[in-house]
Amino acid sequence: MATNDRPLRIYFLCGQNRCRSQMAEAFVKSLGNPNIIVESAGLDPHPLHPLTVEAMNEIGIDLSGYTSKKIDMKVFLAATVIIKLCEDVQERCPIVPFGIRNEQWNIPDPLGSTPPTLEDVRKARDEIKEKVHTLLNQYSAIVTTS
């Protein structure tokens, strides 16, 4: 739970909201308390990449209902924690106001290689899961340890 009895609100941001931020959002929904409010968005949204969906399906997380979204300033300003998953977002993102936790994870874009590989997406997925687990532990917001 966040301070002052406000719910924990996590906003994951990346360039296109087609892979990393979507996986992070899904991991919070899978591992975290149900009262956490979590969303993801991108600077330049693109449709969810099929390799993202495949990599998450492998571990039992279905992204079929997920869609890419552009940054919403209302969600941004209401967040408890804003996590930027790439350097591009750090450079082009609105300034995070005082009082909102601001993190930079800099996870390389697994879809950046030509052609992208499932193995690269798996590697990013596993790194994101570990970081989400650590984040949720900091807020005592873990439901499962899977």
UniProtKB/TrEMBL annotation:
Gene3D superfamilies attached to this UniProt entry: 3.40.50.2300
Residue ranges constituting the Phosphotyrosine protein phosphatase I domain according to the UniProt record: 8-138
Entry keywords, A to Z: Arsenical resistance
Superkingdom of source: Bacteria
Gene Ontology biological process terms in this record: response to arsenic-containing substance
One Pfam family of this chain: LMWPc
Listed name of the protein: Thioredoxin type arsenate reductase
Organism: Cohnella phaseoli
